[in-house]
Amino acid sequence: EKIEDCCKRHSALGERCHTLLSRLGKSECDPPALGMALSRAGTELKLTADGSDRHIAEMMADGANTGMKSLARHLNDCRDATPESRVLAYELIREEQGFYSDMLKFL
Asked: Which of 34, 60, 96, 99 is the most exposed place for a label (fewest CB within 10 A)?
């Protein structure tokens, strides 16, 4: 339930991001295909080694933490970002913080 709710909130934030990018005449950036493939392979390998609920929660918490750090770096590096994009980034960081806290309960 927590994961489904989080996915819904992420999707809503994503739609707002798409709308903002479109309005600003900017295109979306997809992650490189090789990076995605390596990430998927790493995840599959970790799950093969330990597919327990606790380990999955730990992996998801790690992902949320990585996302928060990445967003914080981008906010610090992109001082000229629009106020609306900065608000979206901070909202996503707060969402990730909540998800991270939820996952810690399963460790």
From this structure: 34
Counted residue by residue, the chain has a size of 107
pTM for this one? 0.85
Structure tokens at 66: 């990585």
> How many helical (H) and strand (E) elements, i.e. helices and strands, does the chain have?
4, 0
The C-alpha atoms of residue 75 and residue 85 are separated, in whole angstroms, by 9
Q: Which phi and psi (to 5°) does residue 86 adopt?
A: -65, -40
Rounded (10°) CA dihedral 29, 32, 38, 41: 60
Grouped pLDDT means (10 residues each) for the chain, 107 residues: 86 92 88 90 95 95 95 94 94 95 94
